Amino acid sequence: MKTIAALVFFSLLGGAAVTAETFPLLLRDFVKREDGTFQRTLQRETWKAAETAVIVCDMWDAHHCLNATKRGGQMASRMNAVLKEARARGATIIHAPSSCTDFYKDHPARARALAVEKATNLPVGIEQWMHWIDAEEEKAGYPIDASDGGEDDGKAEHEQWAKALEGRGRNPGSPWIRQTAGLEIDGEKDYITDDGNENWSILEQNGIKNVVLVGVHTNMCVLGRPFGLRQLSRSGKNVALMRDMTDTMYNPKMKPFVSHYQGTDLIIDHVEKYVCRTITSDQILGGSTFSFDQDTRKHLVILAAEKEYHTGETLAKFAEEHLAKHFRVSYVYANPDDQNDLLGLEALDDADIALISVRRRAPRQAQMDKIRSFAAAGKPFVGIRTASHAFSLRGKPAPEGHGVWEKFDPDIWGGNYSGHHGNKLKSSAWVADGATGDPVVAGVKSGEFATGGSLYQVLPLEKGAKVLLMGKVEGHPHEPVAWTFKTAAGGKTFCTSLGHIDDFANENFTTMLKNALLWAAEVKK
């Protein structure tokens, strides 16, 4: 049934067809530019299951950190479903509970690992822990400080947990004796090993080209073990981390003083920049991605599909600097080979709010249906700049199999975009009369401020739109620059014609945009 669900899931998104022998995946990555900055990317690939292994890293039955133990327990059910589906399609499953293989000395999956003939092409050092994949990663260093061990337990609960472990005859410092029982081990198909040479030999014997890592903890074992991301990526395997099936060791009392879950996000970014790409569990199972119960952040999806203002870059930076505390952020970008194919749009399925920066695209019909369904559910939208004409082709028909939404502007934003004034005309904006005190413009400084880009012509707005900013250019009537609206389905929306690359350097704009997202998603500051 899961394979059928995944087939429907990928078919709706216009991805490659799912069969029992393949994994159609959307891989997330960062590409380093010549100036040293990074740009997030998405790529579709289809992996043959027979050439793919899933390695389960250190999903122990207990951990010296109580919160880490709890989080591992939360992940286990979803992870087990991933393993079952991957196994059913023909992937190799390797269980790697470090220092616990003695527990499985009589298990057929352990015997199978021991019976594998030693590979003749063992990479140099494959049996060793790998601290950094190269000098570039080492120079960058980790974005979080786990030098205290990363435990995020409270003192009292940690002491109680240590006593409980002692009562069970466990060493509180290293209480693991086996892999969690929540993960099934198929005695006829799986392997059990924590040895780098054995692991490599298993991969080679089975003709494995692609490896997916799941388990804990990314900033330690998942990256560093002999069977981890660095060693396998360095040695030529096509490696991916399943980013919603992992955790970190990080204490929010350490730098950069963010939540545990933000800390995990930062480590995942580090992996994507320096080590390998990442995927999510829904790409194998369908449905929604996994998140921990304690991660109460709303899910924000950023749709960036326009070329003129580079908002795929500016919005990503804005999100990292201003939104990570309040939102789990997913990204949707246009396929570089097909501007009307929105990669990652499945994230809308469990999103709480969408941020739109799209210009004149006609998404695949199934993708447009998802956007319409999101609106019909009364979900909130926030839009910048070209969002007013995101899905309009100026009345031209959509390509076959694609859809447009010509009335997206009035339906969602309450707007009426008809063009813009000349690019050479200097524009400015100010808080509109009667808008002072609105939470969306809280912190926006009084008086006029310069804005980037041309002034959009948007009058008249739909009934019910509340103007928050007005703008002008010399010799022309004033125009609304930012306003709020409510859709027919009751969804709260905010739209602004600002969003030029220069606007992101303006504190008034970034303050307002953050406020708008918190307001629309009903998140407290």
Account of the 3D structure:
- With 525 residues, the chain is α/β, with parallel strands linked by helices.
- The chain has 2 domains: 2-285, Isochorismatase-like (Rossmann fold); 298-521, 3-Layer(aba) Sandwich (Rossmann fold), CATH 3.40.50.880.
- It has 14 helices and 20 strands.
- It is elongated.
- It starts with a helix and ends with a helix.
Structural class: alpha/beta
- CATH-level-2 architecture of the largest domain: 3-Layer(aba) Sandwich
Q: What do the pLDDT scores average to? A: 95
Q: In terms of per-residue confidence, which ranges show pLDDT below 50 for 5 or more consecutive residues?
A: 1-14
- Gyration radius (Cα, Å) is 25 Å
Strand order of the largest sheet: 11-10-9-12-13-20-19-18-15-16
Helical residue percent band: 25-40%
Shape: elongated
CATH fold-type name of the largest domain: Rossmann fold
CATH class value of the largest domain = Alpha Beta
β content, as a range? 15-25%
Summarize the biggest pleated sheet.
10 strands, mixed
Report the total helices. 14
Number of E-type strands: 20
Number of domains: 2
